[in-house]
């Protein structure tokens, strides 16, 4: 009974508030204050609106700054890094592909079997491994050795999914930290962020570090593409 009474009180309270709001609105309209309030709102909207021409100028200025940043280091107020990605997937891709993402506190690995334009994604598996805090400030070898999850993940391929003899597995490596790339599959770490601080990795080729770690566990896999996380985000929006 108590709950019913409380519920009734709440309903009544809401009804009273609604009625009061209607009364205030009616009084404002009658007194002319409603018209003045609407005029103020319209003026505020007009002052906050950005003309199309001005938006075009902003876009053009950003384009100029981006080109300047790509042309020379320090040549722009915008920090720009070359990605070496010059085309998008066509949809005709076939076969088994791997991807490894080193993000804030996790290694994420996925393998996907593609069947071309008609087959699409035939099958995929995903796994995520948390990075222990002590590895975020340890050594480069210790961190990349922890990517053993890739080797373990290969074991889940199953029959019929192994690459043909003489062909290496291919891996796309998404690296969520600023790197200065020298090719589509190589890049030197500029600095760590997100709580990582491993001095012996700075300035080194992160693909080389990952490749050495995979070789240490006997994994025959080639990193065919290195992508910074912002690049992968933009690509996903275009696909």
TrEMBL record:
EC number in record: 2.7.1.-
One cellular-component annotation, GO: mitochondrion
InterPro entries tied to this protein: ATPase_NBD, Hexokinase, Hexokinase_BS, Hexokinase_N
Reaction equation(s) it catalyzes: D-fructose + ATP = D-fructose 6-phosphate + ADP + H(+); a D-hexose + ATP = a D-hexose 6-phosphate + ADP + H(+)
Domain called Hexokinase N-terminal: residue spans: 41-234
Keywords: ATP-binding, Glycolysis, Kinase, Nucleotide-binding, Transferase
GO biological process, alphabetically ordered: glucose metabolic process; glycolytic process; intracellular glucose homeostasis
Leader sequence segment: none
Family matches, as Pfam families: Hexokinase_1
Pathway field: Carbohydrate metabolism; hexose metabolism; Carbohydrate degradation; glycolysis; D-glyceraldehyde 3-phosphate and glycerone phosphate from D-glucose: step 1/4
MF terms (GO), sorted A to Z: ATP binding; D-glucose binding; fructokinase activity; glucokinase activity
Family: Belongs to the hexokinase family.
Protein name: Phosphotransferase
């Amino acid at each position: 009974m108590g709950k019913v009474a409380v519920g009734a009180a709440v309903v009544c309270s809401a009804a009273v508030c609604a009625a009061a709001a209607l009364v205030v609105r009616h009084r404002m309209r009658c007194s002319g204050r409603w018209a003045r309030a609407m005029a103020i709102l319209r003026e505020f909207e007009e002052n906050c609106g950005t003309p199309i021409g001005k938006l075009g100028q902003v876009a053009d200025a950003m384009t100029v700054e981006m080109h300047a940043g790509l042309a020379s280091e320090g040549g722009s107020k915008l920090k720009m890094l070359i990605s070496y990605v010059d085309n998008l997937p066509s949809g005709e891709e076939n076969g088994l592909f791997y991807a490894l993402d080193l993000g804030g506190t996790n290694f994420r690995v996925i393998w996907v079997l593609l069947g071309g334009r008609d087959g699409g994604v035939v099958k995929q598996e995903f796994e995520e491994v948390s990075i222990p805090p002590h590895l975020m400030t340890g050594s480069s070898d210790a961190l990349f050795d922890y990517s053993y999850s890739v080797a373990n993940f290969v074991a889940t391929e199953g029959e019929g999914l192994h690459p043909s003899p003489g062909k290496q597995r291919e891996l796309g490596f998404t690296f969520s930290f600023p790197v200065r790339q020298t090719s589509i599959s190589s890049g030197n770490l500029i600095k760590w962020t997100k709580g990582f601080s491993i001095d012996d990795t700075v300035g080194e080729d992160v693909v080389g570090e990952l490749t050495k770690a995979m070789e240490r566990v006997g994994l025959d896999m080639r990193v065919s593409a290195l992508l910074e996380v912002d690049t992968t985000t933009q690509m996903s929006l275009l696909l």
